[in-house]
Amino acid sequence: MSRKRKALPLYENVGIEAVAAEGKCVAHVDDKVVFVPFVVPGDVLHVQVTKKRHKYCEARVVKFVKKSPMRIEPRCSHFGICGGCKWQNLPYSEQLKAKQQQVHDQLTRIGKVELPEFHPILGSVKQWEYRNKLEFGCADKRWYTAEELHSLPEGAGLNEPAIGFHITGAFDKIYPIEKCWLMDDLQNRVRNDIFNYAVDSGMTFYDTRSQHGLLRNLMLRNSNSGEWMLLIQFHYDEPGDDERAKALLDHVAATFPEITSLIYVDNQKGNDTVGDLDLITYKGTDFIYEIMEDLKFKVGPKSFYQTNTEQAYHLYCVARSFALDGYDKSSADETNRNDGPVGETNRNDTADKASADLPLIYALYTGTGTIANFVARHARKVVGIEYVPEAIEDAKINASLNGLNNTQFYAGDMKDILTQDFINKHGRPDVIITDPPRAGMHDDVINTILFAAPKRIVYVSCNPATQARDLSLLDGEYAVKAVQPVDMFPHTQHVENVVLLERRTE
């Protein structure tokens, strides 16, 4: 006979004390830490424990006893269900305070390095409709809330399809989204129209468990140049699926002339990634353009580009300032001025002399070369490295597109490319700008950076926790001179952080 599991406790009159990590808030009950989502400091409530550990527990709200005066009304009707934008009930000024504290806590507790005074966090220019990319899943069975299940008529089936966001803990269920506030409203109209067309035409929706169904995934991108991209993932598994897919594409093309790049793919894999698939352009181009200052960047469906376009400019300005502070920008203007055709180098003695005063920069995890090209006009040379080949091809195109003749880009695993031979060939960098993924940098990459021994490192991070770990590994040779948090994702717990490190004097 199995042992009966002890019921988890109900805590009453719990006062929420502060914002914690992962979009949750924290309270204390009987010297135990309690994490609760979708609440704000000052709330008093009854909570049901859902997970209990030795030193902490997680709980959900059962009843509000008193709502905090800090609390604001969430704008989104899907708040608390879809899992995103967990801080919509918290004023934006308080969100920024929490993010600043988050960066400070992670760098001090994890990194344990000596830190200067932090620059105040840069808040996002836009709090709503700030994203340039959203991805929606399609499912033959939607997710129902407890209230929705209770209101269903007796005997009703649970086979209603949906287009929306995946629900945490239910990989095969999609919660239908009617209106998302993260991106220009056109994405809502496109998504809802595709859903209605698919239902009306009898199109099948994808079932993750059985891997059956035609309509699988939508990815929408827009740009500050006014262009829109739509990538539709299909899953062909029945006769006539190609015709049905192209009928939908024809409908979308006719209904939404704003879409300048309409792309599709037949994805037979077990996941929704498309990096290794051949995409087919159905209408328009296979890219859109982003503009930053007077630079133009080509962005394809597989390209990485910061998802908050306006705030990305401010993030890159910070990185550029950290990298180039102390160097003569007038020398850069003379050195990298191009009076001839794009890609043609026109140099003179003055420019050659000025070049010697400019830094050699390595840009690691360079993506489509955004940061690399953004700083190139103020550098002697920029060498960019990225593991996605398609992104590197876009980086080269972007350099040529903007008349930059002092950039070189290489594709491959960072720890394999950035070797002693590579440094001997291209020169020892004065500055390394690194912008790794959330996992941070591989130990081999850190060791190679230490070998390269640049005067300055600019570390752009989307995860201050792994950044802190990497800073501790660099601490023996490099001191942190400046820290600048930047908010790229309002109403979420995520925060970017830029750190300037300088080589310690010997």
How is the secondary structure organized here?
Elements (H helix, E strand, L loop, with lengths): L9 E6 L2 E2 L4 E6 L2 E6 L6 E9 L3 E11 L25 H20 L21 E7 L6 H6 L10 E6 L2 E7 L9 H16 L13 E8 L5 E7 L6 H15 L3 E8 L13 E5 L3 E5 L2 E5 L9 H16 L4 H7 L13 H7 L4 E5 L5 H7 L4 E6 L2 H13 L5 E5 L2 H4 L2 H7 L4 E4 L8 H10 L3 E6 L2 H11 L3 E9 L9 E8 L3
Please give a quick description of this structure.
Helices cover 27% and strands 28% of the residues.
Textual characterization of the structure:
With 506 residues, this protein is an alpha/beta fold. The protein is built from 13 helices and 22 strands. The strands form four sheets. It has a seven-stranded mixed β-sheet with strand order 9-8-7-10-11-12-13. Strand 17 (381-386), helix 9 (389-401) and strand 18 form a beta-alpha-beta unit. The chain is globular. 41% of the residues are buried. Mean pLDDT is 90; it is low at 331-353.
Give keywords.
506 residues, alpha/beta, OB fold (Dihydrolipoamide Acetyltransferase, E2P), Rossmann fold, 3 domains, seven-stranded mixed sheet, 13 helices, 27% helix, globular
